[in-house]
Amino acid sequence: MSHSPFNTLSRFNPPAQPEALFYSLPALAAAEVGNIARLPVSLRIVLESLLRHCDGHRVSERNILELAQWQPRAPRSEEIPFVVARVVLQDFTGVPLLCDLAAMRHAAQASGRDPRSIEPLVPVDLVVDHSVQVDHYGTPQALEQNMRQEFARNHERYQFMKWGMQAFNTFRVIPPGVGIVHQVNLEHLFAGVRRQETARGNLCFPDTLVGTDSHTTMINAVGVVGWGVGGIEAEAAMLGQPVYFLTPDVVGVELVGRLREGVTATDLVLTVTELLRRQKVVGTFVEYFGEGASTLTVTDRATLANMAPEYGATMGFFPVDQKTVNYLRTTGHSEADCELFEAYFRAQGLFGIPRAGQIDYSRTVRLDLCSIVPSLAGPKRPQDRIALPDMASKFNALFSAPEAEDGFARPPEALMQRYPTERAGVALGNGDVLIAAITSCTNTSNPVVMIAAGLLAQKAVARGLHVQPHIKTSLAPGSRVVTDYLEKAGLLAPLAELGFALAGYGCTTCIGNAGDLDPAFNKAISENGLVAAAVLSGNRNFEARIHPNLRANYLASPPLVVAFAIAGRVNIDLDSEALGAGADGQPVFLRDVWPTSEEIDSLLPFALDAETFRRRYADVSADQDLWKAIEARSGALYDWPSSSYIARPPFFELPALPAGDITGARALLLLGDSVTTDHISPAGSFGEATPAGAWLREQGVERADFNSYGARRGHHEVMMRGTFANVRIRNLMLPADAAGRRPEGGYTLFDGQQMTVFDAAMAYLERGTPTIVVAGEEYGTGSSRDWAAKGTRLLGVRAVIARSFERIHRANLVGMGVLPLQFMADDSATALQLRGDESFEILGLGPELVPMQNLTLGITRADGERLERPLLCRIDTPIEVQYYWSGGILPYVLGELMAEGAAGH
């Protein structure tokens, strides 16, 4: 290939370092194969990967040419085989992935191959951050108590992870108590430019990755191309397969101006989420540019990049500039690494945030940073922004609004009523805050908002304000660096005095690990239909995610979380109403305690200390005695001891998908719009009355030891019973009451009888009857939860028909051999008057299936009437066709590896 214009291996000279090799994008531009300099920066980084991995097999010259000649508004039909440099996991998604790898080794051995041939070919980091729960709070002992409880609950899981560390050469675990995966990724795992020794010299290339968490996009803040995928896609990437994706549109978001005094990066990202949801950027790359983007700190950029899943984009990307280099220095990287990083991106022509007119985007959106105002988002979705002064009126309006309008459908006269509880001296009312949590990667990576929260607490304590003790308050920073700088700044103590004592390092409240409320409060809420609230600095507030009994959940900046905890209710206008009375009896308003930019800036040096980062990350397990005490199994094969947490998954033993059309299918569920992966595969707590709880009780597990769905993801018997079991899911097949309300929870109809979705699915499987799920717009929004697809497959669902799909879940369905289908024109379950008692056919399936093919939906109603409607098959790329007919990615990859092994022999 030496004569090829795509062989662009060149040399560059980092300062005071040996000459290095790189695959040069300017050299490709000089070959005149496309207008490379006007391509979006994110696409150019993908293009570099194609150049570097071009072997004529995984990546071809045609792939390079197609991307090099990308047109902003052209139809998209080509797929990109993107080979990533590394993979990052969190424990809820990482444990089932490790289960699959362990099972794949058994399958390899059964096929006569060396099980060690199943080995990650790129570095894999698993950060244990999702298992800590806020059982204890508000005391100096909370951190230690929560961690001890975490290790007691998750001992079997942690043993299994330690087996993985010794079984796989490239698999590393960051133990519990270090931080949230995305913050650890940004502060520690991100290495700037990566290096590889080759026969020709030291090859340099940009950091790229996929992660098994939606918010992997946070790393886009430092110029890294990467996003969240399901565990099944991540496994393929780990085993050397490219991540295939349809060539994207790239939406340029031009930021102009500066944020005004008192406005936070959280307010900015909630505004962007609202804006870009309306702009329908699902499945696109979003790339920020303009002088306003240059003004943002890297941690502000991280806040925006983190919430790309909430605005629906694949990425929220910021190009590299001098602030990125400075961030590397701040987080403890060596001067040589920082100089190499800058030299590489300058050599590639990728240094600096573009200005208007420099890049060809599919379309652009403009946002003036000066227009941003303090905001929250909720009560059910992160894109539903509410300006701070409108909180009271918005809550009060939704209180009596119909459920169809995202309201709570409660009688207006109940709004102001208060109800006694069995806890002495505590009465509850609608809008009362019961959980206030500084939590989640979105904001806890940002020292400006964390210092602002501490300063607000300091001022509030000085004025004699306090938080009512019945409010569950918690501080769960994204890394230990955060508590280091809060302590040095004198802000940890006032936060703790208000109840925001350190509760853990990890993704707590945002993932549903808030822990339970006082039983007296749960009882009062349930008996009186109370609409109580949580306020958290996270990125997700979907129904039943934060706590099953809290219906109103609001996202807010850390200082606003503290403010609403003091106020004690969300139906309050903090512009005009006081937070409370101070020690002198006088009203104290939010403006009285809100910190100024100067006050925040004076303390920022505590957060920008490179030595702190070096010390904290030099040896992440140095002081982790609980982790060190866990004994691990050894050997290349896992022996699958009896466990209610870890079990050998059945995905390599599933029967092959029947070729041809799907006939005689029945609807398992009819669902509405915005069904999230939380609805499909819950992550939080569950009770004995659920199918999962009943199964655990049959295994002798006590209710107190159920843990959470997320912690149980390593066991398919629990997870398939938890699929479609969310307490807030609404199956439209179920009859409504006189007020038009349908029952909530994981129930359906089977032969006209109401039963759990799991029981009905098992009955259909016993009959040999295929099932489908019918849904509305944005099916599968939320976390990159592979169990939402795995559980769907294990319940026997052959196809999901929706008005539209969220990117990751659609790919996960294909990856598990479930057919994603999209209604066309104005068709929907409502328009077609589906009731759930129909029989369905999917016609046009066959070995000749091509991406985005039109299929036919045949519907036979209970009275015998038949109609046919067109469907768009959302198998989007040629490789996905192969995945589907193989029964999913895992059987496909195993087959490829076995074929390679056979060829090698």
UniProtKB/TrEMBL annotation:
Protein's pathway: Carbohydrate metabolism; tricarboxylic acid cycle; isocitrate from oxaloacetate: step 2/2
Gene Ontology biological-process entries: tricarboxylic acid cycle
Coiled-coil zones: none
EC number assigned by the record: 4.2.1.3
Domain Aconitase/3-isopropylmalate dehydratase large subunit alpha/beta/alpha: 76-568
MF terms in GO: 4 iron, 4 sulfur cluster binding; aconitate hydratase activity; metal ion binding
Function: Catalyzes the isomerization of citrate to isocitrate via cis-aconitate.
Name the record gives this protein: Aconitate hydratase
Gene: acn
